[in-house]
Every structure is written in structure tokens, then in C-alpha cells.
Design goal:
- The protein is α/β, with parallel strands linked by helices and 374 residues long.
- It folds into 2 domains: 238 residues, Type I PLP-dependent aspartate aminotransferase-like (Major domain) (Aspartate Aminotransferase, domain 2), CATH 3.40.640; 121 residues, Alpha-Beta Complex (Aspartate Aminotransferase, domain 1), CATH 3.90.1150.10.
- 37% of the residues lie in helices and 14% in strands.
- The chain contains 13 helices and 13 strands.
- Strands 1-9-8-5-4-2-3 form a 7-stranded mixed beta sheet. Strands 7-6-11 form a 3-stranded antiparallel beta sheet, with no helix packed on it.
- Helix 3 crosses helix 4 and helix 9 runs parallel beside helix 13.
- It binds pyridoxal-5'-phosphate.
- Pyridoxal-5'-phosphate binds next to helix 3 and helix 4.
- Its EC number is 2.6.1.92.
- Keywords: Aminotransferase, Pyridoxal phosphate, Transferase.
- GO terms for molecular function: pyridoxal phosphate binding; transaminase activity.
Length: 374
């Protein structure tokens, strides 16, 4: 089976992890701050706080905004559940806006329609590594005084109008799950240029305690510390950070290969009557976390899915819209008719395999299999 996504781990990654295992610090040690520093350098931002997952990063990014309980936050339904779950953890109400068919990203015009007096923030997701219409979203945020969180779990290394993703919202979140642009096994990071938000996120990562293990270590350090807010243990280990440091050196190469694969798909699928290939907007540096196509209306997606899987192509569906899930239906008044674009995309979308280690011949095999459909 050719999987839809896969990590790329080499001997160097393994060596770096083994070095940490033989060192004094397995967690909260020097590798975590080194990883944070090189993330800042790479993105061109001021602060990075590494945590144990992208979901944890979203949770404390939202928490750091201190929004009043029950506030509404507008987000996309066409994402992994972690995006809007982060709002539920923080007693906030997700309000879903419809998406644009071409990029599957949140539609700024529908954001405008969903704004009420209770709206306090927007979480936008760069679907597949294609940045949202960030200029339009920032304009809305300025006009209505809304905070912005960018869930860039798909978009580490992507860019928008010449600037790296991580420089646009109040807080940006990246994920280091194995299928994401780089991996630490599990892991994530919050980046920001705002010193107050960075400080809060740092506290929230470690129980709300104002001194971490490293600052309480050594001949001049004291024993005292304060707990200033109700945080969690979302700390990243040095084992993970060492893997992340080694992976980050290869990110541009990974993204280069992802772009080659996407271009090859676009070329080979050009004119194929069964699928609509994805677009890349002007000014966008695409991360190509996933490569999705829309099937022609006459094709039954579920039959096509089975056909591809039988032929050992690990296709997938990203995403089941969040308002389809029973938990959300039980707790919120949601009607799929309010999201015509999301519904149409959901019914026709299929994810084809893409990952840096994928060979041209495998891309050709995927395309050949698609073209042999009935
Ligand atoms: C992967 C992902 C997350 C969650 O990240 P984890 O590291 O798996 O916790 C959140 N949002 C989106 C859009 C994702 O794809």
C-alpha cells in the first residue's frame, strides 16, 4: 500500500535522539530551547514555545487570549477536530463559516456574515498547506477588533506574499505529528511576536509555574516558585526536540520534494475527466501537506475510495466536516445546509498520497490507477 502520508527519518535523526538518551536532560533541557530558537530563526518570529502536541499548542494559544466564557470564535468546519475542540476546552463557542471550493479554506465573506456582538476571535486553518486569504482575514480582524489564531498544522515552511507562515496572526500553531511537514513523533509549537502572549503560553505549558526545572538547577538557584495561573503539563521532551532540530534542517528539502510531486500530479492528471486538480493562488508558497482532488459529480466517492484502496493506493478523506460529528450535533445547533460549499467539497474530495520519500514511479502508478477507473 502506498500511504497518503509518511514521515522521513534518516540515520542523522536517529543519532541525535540517541545522544539525548545518553545525556542528563530527557526533558526541559537544552534541546527544547535550541529547537525553539531555530524555529524562531526559520520563521523569522520572536517567540516559540514547544509543546507535546499540536492540539496542546492550540489549547494554550486559545487560553492565552483570556476570552470571556461563552465568547464566539469563528472557524472552519473543514479541518481536523482538534481545531475547534481547543475552543471547547476553553469554554468558548465555535461558530463555523463555510469554505471556498478552490482552496478548501475558510471564506472571508462567510466570516463577515457570522460575526455578532459576541465574536472575539477567528481561528483559520491553512488547508493542505495552502495559506488562507490572510490579507482579507486580517482586514476583518482589524475592523471588528478580533484576535487571530492561525492553525498552521499543515503549513510549516509555507509562505504568503513572500513572508513565512508564522508572522501573520496573534499566535500561530504548528504540529509535528508524523504526517506533518516535520515530525517529533508527537509535538507542536506556538509562535508569536507578542511578549505578553508568549509569556502566558510558556506558563500554561508548565502548570502555570513561573520557574522551570532548568532555572531551579545549579549552585545559585533557589527552591522557591509560584503558580500564577492554571496551566497543564504540555512540555516537550528533549528527545522530541532533538528529533525536531534534525528534521527542521531538512524541511526546505521536504517541501521542495512535495512541490515536485504536486506538480507531477497536476501535469499527469491534466485533462483527466474524473478529477479536478487543486490550485495554487498567486503569491503563495504551498506546503503541500496533502494533495486533494475533487471527483467529477458523476463518480461515487465511496466506490472510488474502495477501488483505489483495493489497488493498494492509500487514499483518504480530509475532512469529515466537524458539524457531522455526534458530539457537536448534541451540543450545538448545527445544520449542514448552512455549509453548501463544505458539503459539496466533502462529498467529492479524495486525498492522494504525497510525502517526501514518494517516488515518481509511485505518483505515476497512482495516476494510472485513477485513469483506469471503469
Ligand atoms: C494535525 C492537526 C492538528 C493537531 O495536531 P496534533 O499534533 O496531532 O495534536 C490540529 N489541526 C490540524 C488542522 C491538524 O491537521
Amino acid at each position: 500500500m502506498i500511504p497518503y502520508g509518511h514521515q522521513s527519518i534518516d540515520e542523522n535523526d536517529v543519532e541525535e535522539v540517541v545522544k539525548v538518551l545518553n545525556s542528563d536532560w530527557l526533558t526541559t533541557g537544552p534541546k527544547v530551547s535550541e529547537f525553539e530558537n531555530i524555529i524562531c530563526e526559520y520563521v523569522g518570529c520572536k517567540y516559540a514555545i514547544a509543546v507535546n502536541s499540536g492540539t496542546s499548542a492550540l489549547d494554550i494559544a486559545v487560553s492565552s487570549l483570556d476570552l470571556p466564557k461563552g465568547s464566539e470564535v469563528i472557524t472552519t468546519p473543514f479541518t481536523f477536530v482538534a481545531t475547534s475542540n481547543a475552543l471547547l476546552y476553553n469554554n468558548l463557542k465555535p461558530i463555523f463559516a463555510d469554505i471556498k471550493k478552490d482552496t478548501r479554506n475558510i471564506d472571508p465573506e462567510d466570516i463577515l456574515r457570522k460575526i455578532t456582538a459576541k465574536t472575539k476571535a477567528i481561528i483559520y486553518v491553512d488547508f493542505a498547506g495552502h495559506p488562507c486569504d490572510i490579507d482579507e482575514i486580517k482586514k476583518i480582524a482589524r475592523e471588528y477588533d478580533l484576535r487571530l489564531i492561525e492553525d498552521a498544522s499543515h503549513a510549516f515552511g509555507a509562505s504568503y506574499h513572500g513572508k513565512m507562515i508564522g508572522n501573520f496572526a496573534d499566535l500561530t500553531v504548528f504540529s509535528f505529528h508524523p504526517v506533518k511537514p516535520i515530525t517529533t513523533g508527537e509535538g507542536g509549537v506556538v509562535v508569536t511576536d507578542n511578549p505578553e502572549l508568549a509569556e502566558k503560553v510558556r506558563l500554561l505549558r508548565n502548570h502555570g509555574i513561573d520557574k522551570d526545572a532548568a532555572t531551579r538547577y545549579g549552585p545559585d538557584a533557589g527552591w522557591a516558585y509560584d503558580m500564577k495561573m492554571l496551566g497543564r503539563n504540555y512540555r516537550m521532551t528533549d528527545i522530541q526536540a532533538a528529533l525536531g532540530i534534525s528534521q527542521l534542517k531538512k524541511l526546505d528539502g521536504f517541501i521542495g520534494r512535495r512541490n515536485e510531486i504536486a506538480n507531477l500530479y497536476n501535469e499527469l492528471l491534466d485533462g483527466c475527466e474524473f478529477v479536478e486538480t487543486p490550485i495554487t493562488k498567486e503569491g503563495v508558497g504551498h506546503g503541500w501537506h496533502i494533495y486533494t482532488v475533487l471527483l467529477n459529480e458523476s463518480i461515487n466517492r465511496n466506490e472510488f475510495f474502495k477501488y483505489m484502496r483495493k489497488n493498494e493506493i492509500g487514499v483518504n478523506v480530509h475532512y469529515i466536516p466537524i458539524y457531522h460529528f455526534s458530539y457537536y450535533r448534541e451540543h450545538f445547533d448545527l445544520d449542514e445546509n448552512d455549509f453548501p460549499e463544505t458539503e459539496d467539497v466533502f462529498n467529492r474530495i479524495i486525498t492522494l498520497p504525497i510525502y517526501p520519500g514518494m517516488k515518481d514511479e509511485e505518483v505515476e502508478l497512482v495516476v494510472k490507477t485513477i485513469k483506469a477507473w471503469k
